[in-house]
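hey
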């Protein structure tokens, strides 16, 4: 007992311990008056709050004391008395069958699936049963089982306390005296307790045993206990809570909450303690989140209860019970996240997923699975297939389920469901699931909608048969009749095939139905009530748009709107049409007719998927019609083919002759000669428009008198002649008799000196432009056929093409001659410029040096005569230097001229060869950097030569004027140009006065002329003391358009 009081009065400790125990057991401090049902509900509330469960069941049973307390909480709320018995009846089979194993049950209200688990604790005939349901199908964890077991033991403790109280009551023999003495135990101090002499020695001993039990509870309970005084100082604390706080038990006494706990945690505890002291009421199920000294920096979670310890109506202490729920909260959060992911997968898939018990009752199903049956999830859960499906379907589904459970292995099935007249097919995989003891508890299934595949499969079979039918006869009417019969009844109850087009009347060619009488009825309807050619709906709409029309459901209003009179309406209603679709018969982009599919007595309804399949059947039927028509057309074409072959031979002859004609005159002569021969004309001519387009000129003529040709050698386009009108309008003119010619062109007939009886004029059209005309004359009247005009227009087209080829040939000959002349002039100009440049170089360098040598030689001769040997030696040394410089200049000019011999080499090869020799001859260190691909530098020969010579000029200037022994050639690409930069770090010069320099002006002009000749650019940038940069820009297309690349970029 000393460990209980811990240096304080035993009476002050006895009451808190009692209240603490009863508070945890029942959530009510008034345990003396607590009924068993209330105690059970208090325990249920603790579990619901700690574990967050939607279903909690607690039963406290002690037959010896006639105690049967039951409480149920659903979604946090206690179940009313009138509902309690019903819920208990639902749960009883699971409690009796598998009292301590998990089962799947339906939520009593929401129909969600719960994992149902129960724990039973028994001793001395007393029972405490705790059962819970969790939406987490992995429930319970080890911690969950521990909490449930602990709660069951608390229930037994309550029953034990009730028994002790009853015994105390029996010992005193008076209920009122017992209540008075128990109040003294709970609220009075030790002195009052000792003064109560009415207790017997046996009662005192029992109280001592109860105190020992309470001490054992404080020491060994797996949750924390503490008591606080008015100053919030610790009065009593057990080891569990002390360890939570991270301090020994003795370190808590005479210290306040704020001195023991971190600030945030202490604040929450202090607020709760203040509230209990001020109100005298308990603070229940308060969750505190914070830190302790035990694990600094880590946030923990506790579930606490604060309750008053009363004495004479005053709160003298506040008791606290603490259960750490950190791991549970983390587990719950993890489970909630896992559940959310599972739910997302469960609801996100388009496949139906469901869970059933042994009786095939749906325990769980997703929205997709419910939609397959045309139901909601709420309508499915808790029900068997017999309650929601047709008898035939339900019988098969249940048989499949039982087969899977009996054979204890996964199986696949194909299910057929008819919903609102639409047949759907599903591929289902079902597998058994087991309880903890290995017994089959039910099945889990996945169903996938395979309706599109099944429809495609069946329709492919239909199409295969249709292909056989369509290939069996050349008569398309027979073919269509067979196709209509094929569609009935597998795809339609009615099938009607009609032929027509957008501008034609619709002709019904085939009707199919299983009842011949109804076929006759439809034929009679078509005869009595033909379709309106002006209609914009139904078959006429499909013919006009070429697109199918779907009527998923035919309503009575639609039937009334289609009827033309009462008798018609009666007949249409008797057909009981439920759904229809009309698809076009198409071939090569043309709509040749329609196929109408109708569902009536079968009760089916068409969907968009059916339309797609029907369109394919219509397409094949359309091809059959088109092929039949083509076959007929082929026979007709064969008849005319022989006649056309003769004309083709004639055209080939003309073509062969024209291919040998190179000039316009030769073409005109060939066309007239061959045209007269083929068409058996007596004369003909070809006229062409002049450049102004106002006059026509005879290019060649045959069979006309010379004076007639001279008279009409040129005549205006505006003249009233057949040829002029053909040129103006672009249309051919065929006049078969002289009368027709005179009626249309009377003035022309009067002016003509020829004996024309018939006349033809044909336009010569080149790319929608009239360039002239052909005229043919006949001395006999003619009867031209449509094929004749086609042949003559073909002759005219050949003439036009031949004339254009001749014109191009003549233009090419002239252009070639001009190009050759220009090339010769360019070569002469280049040679002249090179001579001028060489002359200027010789004048500026060699000639001046020779003049200077003559002057110095005269001075040396004078000094020699006077005997001034020092002056002679100085002059000779200077003369030697000048001679070396002249030699270098002459050598460089010779080197530059020799580089032209390698003009056929690739640009890079030529440049590398030149740079290597330049380094060797003039000891100038030249670096070459290439930043572009080789194919961009594959210049034509003339471009290569001009670019290399310009680089030579730039390097020559570097050697002469920069006064450095290093230079850089950088090849890059920018702004549609290949840029070749020659750079040095020499003395530079002033670019503003560059044009005035005598030494540079001629060389720079030559460099600019070279670049201009290839559409390039030359830019020079220089600063005195900082060097010079000469940029040669060559158009990119000169390299890219000239042959493939040969090298990779590199120095």
């Amino acid at each position: 007992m000393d460990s209980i009081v811990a240096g304080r009065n035993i009476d002050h400790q006895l009451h808190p311990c009692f209240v603490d125990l009863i508070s945890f057991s029942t959530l009510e401090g008034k345990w003396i008056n607590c009924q068993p049902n209330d105690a059970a509900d208090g325990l249920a509330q603790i579990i619901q709050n700690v574990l967050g469960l939607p279903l909690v069941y607690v039963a406290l049973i002690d037959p010896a004391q006639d105690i049967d307390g039951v409480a149920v909480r659903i979604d946090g709320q206690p179940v009313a008395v009138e509902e309690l018995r019903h819920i208990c009846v639902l749960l009883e089979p699971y409690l009796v069958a598998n009292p301590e194993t998990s089962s799947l049950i339906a939520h009593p209200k929401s129909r969600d699936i719960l994992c149902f688990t129960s724990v039973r604790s028994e001793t001395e005939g007393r029972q405490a049963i705790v059962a819970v349901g969790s939406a987490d199908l992995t429930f319970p964890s080890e911690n969950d089982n521990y909490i449930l077991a602990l709660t069951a033991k608390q229930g037994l403790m309550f029953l034990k306390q009730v028994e002790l109280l009853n015994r105390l009551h029996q010992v005193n023999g008076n209920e009122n005296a017992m209540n008075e003495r128990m109040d003294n135990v709970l609220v009075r101090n030790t002195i009052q307790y000792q003064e109560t002499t009415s207790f017997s020695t046996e009662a005192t001993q029992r109280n001592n045993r109860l105190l020992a039990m309470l001490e054992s509870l404080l020491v060994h309970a797996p949750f924390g206990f503490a008591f606080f005084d008015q100053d919030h100082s610790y009065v009593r604390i057990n080891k569990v809570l002390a360890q939570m706080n991270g301090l020994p038990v003795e370190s808590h006494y005479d210290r306040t909450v704020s001195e023991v706990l971190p600030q945030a945690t202490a604040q929450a505890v202090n607020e709760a303690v203040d509230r209990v002291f001020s109100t005298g009421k308990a603070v229940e199920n308060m969750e505190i989140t914070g830190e302790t000294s035990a694990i600094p920096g880590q946030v923990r979670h506790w579930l606490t209860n604060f309750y008053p310890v009363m004495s004479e109506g005053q709160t003298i202490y506040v008791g606290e019970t603490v259960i750490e729920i950190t791991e549970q909260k983390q587990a719950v959060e993890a489970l909630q996240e896992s559940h959310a992911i599972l739910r997302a997968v469960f609801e996100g898939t388009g496949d139906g997923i469901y869970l059933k018990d042994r009786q095939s009752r749906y325990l769980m199903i997703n929205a997709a699975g419910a939609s397959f049956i045309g139901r909601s999830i709420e309508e499915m859960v808790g029900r068997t297939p017999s309650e929601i499906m047709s008898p035939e379907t339900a019988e098969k589904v249940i048989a499949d389920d039982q087969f899977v459970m009996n054979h204890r292995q996964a199986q696949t099935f194909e299910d057929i469901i008819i919903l609102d007249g639409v047949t759907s097919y599903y591929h289902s995989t079902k597998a058994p699931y087991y309880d903890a003891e290995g017994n089959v508890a039910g099945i889990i299934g996945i169903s996938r909608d395979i309706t599109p595949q099944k429809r495609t499969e069946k329709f492919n079979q239909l199409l295969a048969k249709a292909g056989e039918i369509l290939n069996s006869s050349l008569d398309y009417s027979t073919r269509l009749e067979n196709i209509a019969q094929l569609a009935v009844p597998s795809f339609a109850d009615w099938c009607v095939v009609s032929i027509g087009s957008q501008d034609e009347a619709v002709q019904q060619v085939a009707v199919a139905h299983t009842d011949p009488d109804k076929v006759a009825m439809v034929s009679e309807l078509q005869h009595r009530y033909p379709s309106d050619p002006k209609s914009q709906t139904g078959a006429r709409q499909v013919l006009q748009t070429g697109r199918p029309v779907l009527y998923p459901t035919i309503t009575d209003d639609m039937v009334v709107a289609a009827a033309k009179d009462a008798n018609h309406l009666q007949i249409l209603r008797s057909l009981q049409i439920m759904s229809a679709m009309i698809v076009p018969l198409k071939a090569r982009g043309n709509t040749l007719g329609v196929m109408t599919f109708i569902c009536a007595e079968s009760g089916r309804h068409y969907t968009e998927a059916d339309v797609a399949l029907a369109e394919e059947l219509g397409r094949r039927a359309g091809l059959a019609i088109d092929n039949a028509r083509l076959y007929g057309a082929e026979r007709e074409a064969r008849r005319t083919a022989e006649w056309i072959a003769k004309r083709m031979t004639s055209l080939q002859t003309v073509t062969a002759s024209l291919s040998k004609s190179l000039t316009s005159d030769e073409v005109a002569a060939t066309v007239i000669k061959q045209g007269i021969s083929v068409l058996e004309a007596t004369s003909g001519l070809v006229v062409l428009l002049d450049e102004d387009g106002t006059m026509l000129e005879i290019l060649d003529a045959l069979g006309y008198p010379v004076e007639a040709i001279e008279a009409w050698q040129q005549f205006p386009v505006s003249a009233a002649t057949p040829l002029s009108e053909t040129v103006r309008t672009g249309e051919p003119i065929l006049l078969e008799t002289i009368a027709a010619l005179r009626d249309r062109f009377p003035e022309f007939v009067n002016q003509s000196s020829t004996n024309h009886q018939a006349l033809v004029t044909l336009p010569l059209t080149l790319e929608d432009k009239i360039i002239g005309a052909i005229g043919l004359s006949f001395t006999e009247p003619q009867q031209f056929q449509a094929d004749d005009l086609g042949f003559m227009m073909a002759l005219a087209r050949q003439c036009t093409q031949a004339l254009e080829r001749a014109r191009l040939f003549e233009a090419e000959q002239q252009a070639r001659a001009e190009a050759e002349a220009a090339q010769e002039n360019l070569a002469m100009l280049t040679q002249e410029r090179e001579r001028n440049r060489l002359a200027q170089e010789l004048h500026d360098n060699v000639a001046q040096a020779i003049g200077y040598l003559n002057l110095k030689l005269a001075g040396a001769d004078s000094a020699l005569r006077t005997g001034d040997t020092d002056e002679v030696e100085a002059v000779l040394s200077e003369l030697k230097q000048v001679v070396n410089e002249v030699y270098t200049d002459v050598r460089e000019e010779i080197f530059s001229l020799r580089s032209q011999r390698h003009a056929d080499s690739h640009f890079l090869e030529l440049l590398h060869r030149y740079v290597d020799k330049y380094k060797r001859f003039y000891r100038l260190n030249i670096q070459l950097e290439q930043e572009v691909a080789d194919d961009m530098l594959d210049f034509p020969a003339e471009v290569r030569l001009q670019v290399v010579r310009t680089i030579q000029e730039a390097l020559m200037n570097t050697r002469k004027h920069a006064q450095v022994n290093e230079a850089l050639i950088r090849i890059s690409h920018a702004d549609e140009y290949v840029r070749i930069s020659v750079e040095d770090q020499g003395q530079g010069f002033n670019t503003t006065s560059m044009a005035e320099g005598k030494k540079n002006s001629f060389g720079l002009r030559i460099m600019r002329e070279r670049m201009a000749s290839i559409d390039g650019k030359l830019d020079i940038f220089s600063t005195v003391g900082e060097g010079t940069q000469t940029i040669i820009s060559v158009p990119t297309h000169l390299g890219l358009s000239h042959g493939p690349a040969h090298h990779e970029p590199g120095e």
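Residues 660-815 form a domain with the Beta-Lactamase fold (CATH 3.30.450.40). The longest strand covers residues 422-434.
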